[in-house]
Q: What sequence folds into this?
């Protein structure tokens, strides 16, 4: 195993710099780039957590972990978190378990055979959907969604407009046949998604490109997740990074309960100056002041539009319930 100590000054944490000799992502002499790829994933993860207003994760899944290019960063920056490494290469998973203390999960083409015994509050899926056609997108995102906690964050990468420009403007084909590349780009141009198998493989594994608009539409149609952030070309200045979480509850979902509670408190005061009548215009300002005090006291993040609706609903409730209450 190779260990480079002179690179640690690039980071503000003590990163385990052990590299497996079987790591296909490592190019000898390019340690700085190798580690920077993992670090750029971490930057996107931290930004995604902030965008979703989520706390530091305690249970993390790295799917398509390889030999820990990203996982080593997660271990250093979330030292208390439990890590799970998942990859189709069993030796890579074993290396991550031995080196970074991660639990093991082995990727299987038959996604139903992947054993994930728990849910995770952070899932990083880097450069996996980039090699799959649409049916596998649906199946894999469904799997990850099922294993995401209610307050969890899923990040995945895709190859978007930048990669298409590299192919079309610079004639770089990513190991694909010229005819396959043209068909893939034609599909992308028409519908926002293109896929081609690698010529050396006959299985599910190939190369996909997907526009941001297609990915956002796909999420809306095929998952219960909402987009928290998108960083085009955000991973290694190459792949787009999407951060998703479960659809946040609308503050209006809680407003009925809040209206009932505030109206009941006002009625319990037995002060008819709070009750709106035909000539009791001052009641509205008193109720508004009372609501403002309760909202601030309860630290409810209601903006002006919701507060206006809340006031009108409380006033309506008071009108309905006040008859016969005051003497």
A:
């Amino acid at each position: 195993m190779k260990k480079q100590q002179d690179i640690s000054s690039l980071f503000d944490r003590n990163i385990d710099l052990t590299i497996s000799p079987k790591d296909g992502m490592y190019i000898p002499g390019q340690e700085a780039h190798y580690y920077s790829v993992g670090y750029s994933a971490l930057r996107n993860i931290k930004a995604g957590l902030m965008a979703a207003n989520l706390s530091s994760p305690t249970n993390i899944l790295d799917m398509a972990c390889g030999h820990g290019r990203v996982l080593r960063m997660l271990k250093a920056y979330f030292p208390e978190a439990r890590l799970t490494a998942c990859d189709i290469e069993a030796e890579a998973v074993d290396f991550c378990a031995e080196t970074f203390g991660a639990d093991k999960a082995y990727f299987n083409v038959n996604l139903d055979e992947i054993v994930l015994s728990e849910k995770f509050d952070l899932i990083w899926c880097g450069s996996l959907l980039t090699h799959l056609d649409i049916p596998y997108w649906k199946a894999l995102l469904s799997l990850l969604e099922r294993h995401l906690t209610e307050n969890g964050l899923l990040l995945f990468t895709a190859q978007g407009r930048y990669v298409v420009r590299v192919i079309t403007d610079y004639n770089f084909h990513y190991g694909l046949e010229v005819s396959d590349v043209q068909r893939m780009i034609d599909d992308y141009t028409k519908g926002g998604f293109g896929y081609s198998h690698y010529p050396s493989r006959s299985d599910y594994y190939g190369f996909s490109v997907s526009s941001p608009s297609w990915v956002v539409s796909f999420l809306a149609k095929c998952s219960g997740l909402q987009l928290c952030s998108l960083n085009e070309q955000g991973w290694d200045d190459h792949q787009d990074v999407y951060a998703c979480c479960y659809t946040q509850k609308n503050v209006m979902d809680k407003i009925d309960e809040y209206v009932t509670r505030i109206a009941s408190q006002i009625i319990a005061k037995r002060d008819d100056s709070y009750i709106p009548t035909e000539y009791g215009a001052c009641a509205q300002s008193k109720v508004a002041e009372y609501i403002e005090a309760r909202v601030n006291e309860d630290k409810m993040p209601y903006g002006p539009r919701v507060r206006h609706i809340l006031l009108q609903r409380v006033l309506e409730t008071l009108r309905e319930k006040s008859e016969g209450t005051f003497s």
User: Anything to note?
Assistant: The CA atoms of residues 163 and 238 lie 7 Å apart. The mean pLDDT is 89. The chain is about 40% helix and 20% strand. The two ends are 85 Å apart (CA to CA).
